[in-house]
């Protein structure tokens, strides 16, 4: 069954991440140190950042954390490992498991970043539930897009990080603008109806990218 294969691959990724805690620690250190540098920068100016700067910096930090977290997903696996997976599971299970794992990882990183961010830089959020829902959509969007790009970069070989940046950022920028817009509405406490169209667009982008990955990854995997 596809669900059983996804569960097995997901459990494998979590076990590997726990064994290689240095990578996870480096990601947490990146988020914490970046937030602290932002705190030092604004404290020198005598206070908290204005809401637009607070909002934009939060998503930029999360974006680069997502790139660092997802980049290693496929590129840390050797061709021999990928051939071994080829004999055991379906390619659809691999791409869906990677997306789900990366989404959970990025959601955890995002919640940690939000906690540190509000601790050091204040909490201007007036509609917390809308902001958290937007954070979930952002984690899913970053995970689905960057997982597919990571798979392409791993197959292409060479400098995978550079290829991820070239392929990923043109897709990520429109999504990032929508996320910033919705979270700015949450910071200002505006009516949720104003964010409805942007949320629907984010959901549609996530579904389109996930569906495209599900359909196209088998051809990429066999290539």
* Rounded radius of gyration (Å): 18 Å
Question: Would you tell me the overall average pLDDT?
Answer: 83
**CA(first)-CA(last) distance:** 24 Å
Number of strands: 0
| Number of helices in the DSSP assignment | 8
Q: What structural category arises from helix and sheet content?
A: mainly alpha
Helix proportion range: over 70%
Low-pLDDT residue spans: none
Largest sheet: none
Strand residue content: under 5%
Spell the H/E element sequence: HHHHHHHH
The outline comes out as: globular
Question: How would you characterize the overall build of this protein?
Answer:
With 223 residues, the protein is mainly alpha-helical. The protein is built from 8 helices and no strands. Belongs to the CcmB/CycW/HelB family. Keywords: Membrane, Transmembrane, Transmembrane helix. This is Heme exporter protein B. It holds the Pfam family CcmB.
Topology:
Blueprint: H1 2-19, H2 21-43, H3 51-75, H4 79-88, H5 91-121, H6 128-156, H7 160-188, H8 196-222
Helix pairs in contact: 1-5, 2-3, 2-5, 3-5, 3-6, 3-7, 5-6, 5-8, 6-7, 6-8, 7-8
Keywords: Membrane, Transmembrane, Transmembrane helix
Family: Belongs to the CcmB/CycW/HelB family.
Pfam family, one: CcmB
In short:
Keywords: Membrane, Transmembrane, Transmembrane helix. By secondary structure, this protein is mainly α.
């Amino acid at each position: 069954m596809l669900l059983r294969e996804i569960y097995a691959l997901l459990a494998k990724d979590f076990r590997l991440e726990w064994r290689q805690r240095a990578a996870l620690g480096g990601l947490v250190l990146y988020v914490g140190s970046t937030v602290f540098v932002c705190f030092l920068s604004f404290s020198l100016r005598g206070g908290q950042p204005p809401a637009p700067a607070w909002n934009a910096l939060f998503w930029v930090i999360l974006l680069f954390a997502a790139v660092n977290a997802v980049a290693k997903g496929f590129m840390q696996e050797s061709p021999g490992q990928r051939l071994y997976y080829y004999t055991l599971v379906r390619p659809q299970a691999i791409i869906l498991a990677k997306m789900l794992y990366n989404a959970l990882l990025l959601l955890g990183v995002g919640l940690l970043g939000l906690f540190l961010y509000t601790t050091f830089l204040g909490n201007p959020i007036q509609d917390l539930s809308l902001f958290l829902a937007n954070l979930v959509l952002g984690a899913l969007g970053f995970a689905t897009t960057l997982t597919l790009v990571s798979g392409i970069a791993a197959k292409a070989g060479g400098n995978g990080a550079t290829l991820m940046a070239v392929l990923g950022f043109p897709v990520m920028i429109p999504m990032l603008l929508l996320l910033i817009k919705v979270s700015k509405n949450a910071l200002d406490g505006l009516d949720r109806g104003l964010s409805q169209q942007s949320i629907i667009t984010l959901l549609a982008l996530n579904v389109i990218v996930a569906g495209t990955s599900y359909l196209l990854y088998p051809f990429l995997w066999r290539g």
